[in-house]
Hints:
Blueprint: E1 16-21, E2 24-25, E3 31-32, H1 34-41, H2 51-54, H3 77-81, E4 87-88, E5 96-98, E6 105-110, H4 112-120, E7 126-128
Antiparallel strand pairs: 1-6, 1-7, 2-3, 4-5, 5-6
Amino acid sequence: MSDKTVFGTVPSGYAAYARVLHPADSESGEPVTWARVAEVTGRRVHPAARWHTLIDAAGTYDSCSELWPHGGPYDGPEVWWTQSPSLFWPADRAWCVATEIDFDSTFVGGSTAAIGAVLTAPMLEAWPIEGGRSPVSCPGG
């Protein structure tokens, strides 16, 4: 992917964009938010947070570390046994959802109202993000 901004994954032209963080695994194997992981690791979650930085992992795609040995957004049996689309939208293209196979999050573009609904959905851990900006170049990334 040559465009390292959100637009490299989700098309430009939407009024707003969100980054939805993929849940990690807890000690019991249940899904856990990045906010909870940050409480344990003493780090901070923000729109450009990267999983390996949050847990102080040695490598970009390491899902565990000494600070968080339980597994991350890349783990779990469902990763290897199910397949989901990496890009989808309705016929009117009012919104678009996009991810890549090795991303720790999913990007959504849509109207301000649609993204507002994503950001306030109780089952999602989501952050607003600028479409033309690299998700890893924000302060604290």
